[in-house]
Amino acid sequence: MYRVNPPVHDAGCGLLSVDGLGVAYGDVVALRDVTFDVGAGELIAVIGPNGAGKSSMFRAIVGLVSHAGAVALSGAHCHHQRDRMCAAYIPQRSDLDMGFPITVGDLVLSGRRRFVPFGRRPRQADRDAALGCMRRVGVDDLAERPIGTLSGGQAQRAFLARALAQEAHVLLLDEALSGVDQPRTEQLLDVFHALRDDGVTLLVATHDLALARRRFDRCLAINRGLVADGDPRTVLGERELDAVFGSALAGTV
Amino acid sequence: MSWLLDPYQTDFMQRAALAALLVGVLAPTVGVWVVLRRLAYLGDAMSHGTLAGVAAAYMAGISITLGALAAGLVMGWVITAFEGRRRLGQDSIIGVAETLMFALGVLLISQTDRIGVDITHFLFGQIVTIDRTDLVIAASLTLLALLTVAVSFGDLRALTFDPIHAAQVGVPVARLRYVLMALISVTVVVSLDTVGLLLSVAMLVTPAAAARLVTDQVSTMTLVAVAIGVGSCLGGLTLSYHLGTPPGPTIALIAVACFVLASLLTGAGRARRRTVSDIASGSAPAASQVATARSAS
């Protein structure tokens, strides 16, 4: 079975370190002074209300929006976007045209772009790597299917395979569980756990607080800043939820 | 067979056929990305905006092709430069740029009209008057554009489907957007003599839109779009010879007929699939039940 190259760590450094991260769009501050450290093989739920800055945080980590503060991957500070290619951001499906004519195989192969020089066709090694990533998340039998014909859970696994083909060790998944039914959510979580056990770190933005408590190792609560960080049972306590979502939600998890 | 070959006994009709072939290949190839990126309005605006370059080139006494190309590139640059404005949608920026270039073109034409220049040649195309030099320029531009699409095919697909991921894995997103603008501009220029400024968007959008209805992969969509484009251009030219109609609109109408046919075929196919799956799942009455209900009423 295909495995991505293991992440390289500097001694004493986390796989992902975020220090004083801030994002603003003009005068609107989306995120302020977020600091946390993540090791290899962690499965982290990122919770917060709509507009809390979860997507902005993910996009800042991979360098898609300009930000204040510092981001380091495997102990190396990221100055340019090319320094961050071992982190992959998987956007919400609603941000994409899921009717686009692309097969799962071609989608996953596009993750190899960083290894293929401009104007060249992917090599056989790239095709093998893409196939291995599809096998790893169980979509190899869907390789010829157009992406628009997949269920929500299958599509999410295809995007995971693309991120693995990119040889990313940190996966940032935005609302990955939205629109996925309960049995397939559990299957997807099983894939997350398997990847975590292989040393991949996953940060998953979700609104499903019960699931965050039940199946994640750690929880980051965001509301335009980092409100809480730790064990889901602690972070999803009544006082912490009140701070993140307001009193309406406290006690419902 | 002679009905098909008779029109092409003369030199000028052979040159016209070659010009039609170039447009039939290039416009749908670029049009695939115009359709997938939902840029049909941009294609229309680019074709209108090129008028400024055509008129300016007339006045300056330089190559019309170069003038049109320069106008398209300037328009593409203006649109790309203003694209990031958060308060404005891309369609608004395209609308403003089109207004600027088209108004400028009309203004210049009002001056050129006084010196007796017939601009309708470029508005509606005049494929049978194309000379050898025009043909060589069109062929060179077509070759360059096709090579560009071939080399950047994977990156264009990545950019179109998921620009965020494309940027993450090193696709030169901003540069590629400008390249696409340049490709549209080149396509409009190559289409000038064949279908004219006003109908160039027909060849840019219609074959690709028809192909999109019947295909599920970009590569197949490109091949089908090119087949429709070549068929429309050569079929339109042949038909216009026999019917005595203007070639530009005849070519455009054949492309539209292909779109309507693809639409009818896929619509019928979808309806048939839906009926079968609905009956299988029990959510729709079987045809026999419908017939019984109708006869009862």
How does this structure look, described?
The complex is a heterodimer of chains A (253) and B (297). Chain A has 253 residues and is an alpha/beta fold. Chain A has 2 domains: 158 residues, Rossmann fold (3-Layer(aba) Sandwich), CATH 3.40.50.300; 74 residues, no CATH class. Chain A has 8 helices and 10 strands. By secondary structure, chain B is mostly helical. Chain B has a single domain, classed as ABC transporter involved in vitamin B12 uptake, BtuC (Orthogonal Bundle). Helices cover 80% and strands 0% of the residues of chain B. Chain B has 14 helices and no strands. Chain B starts with a helix and ends with a helix. The C terminus of chain B is likely disordered. Chains A and B meet through strand 6 and helix 2 of A and helix 8 and helix 9 of B.
Q: What is the number of independent domains of chain B?
A: 1
And the CATH topology of the largest domain in chain A? Rossmann fold
Q: What structural category do the secondary elements of chain B indicate? A: mainly alpha
Uncertain segments of chain B are 279-297
Q: Kindly name the structural category of chain A.
A: alpha/beta
Characteristic terms for this protein:
heterodimer; A: 253 residues; alpha/beta; Rossmann fold; 6-stranded mixed beta sheet; globular; disordered N terminus; B: ABC transporter involved in vitamin B12 uptake, BtuC; disordered C terminus
Compose a concise summary of this entry.
The complex is a heterodimer of chains A (253) and B (297). With 253 residues, chain A is an alpha/beta fold. Chain A has helices at 54-61, 104-110, 124-137, 152-165, 182-197, 209-215, 232-235, 238-245, and strands spanning 16-25, 28-38, 43-47, 68-73, 76-77, 87-90, 170-174, 201-205, 218-222, 226-230.
Secondary structure: elements and pairs:
The complex is a heterodimer of chains A (253) and B (297).
Chain A: E1 16-25, E2 28-38, E3 43-47, H1 54-61, E4 68-73, E5 76-77, E6 87-90, H2 104-110, H3 124-137, H4 152-165, E7 170-174, H5 182-197, E8 201-205, H6 209-215, E9 218-222, E10 226-230, H7 232-235, H8 238-245
Helix pairs in contact in A: 2-4, 3-4, 4-5
Chain B: H1 2-5, H2 11-36, H3 40-60, H4 64-82, H5 90-112, H6 120-124, H7 132-151, H8 153-161, H9 163-168, H10 173-191, H11 200-214, H12 218-243, H13 247-281, H14 287-296
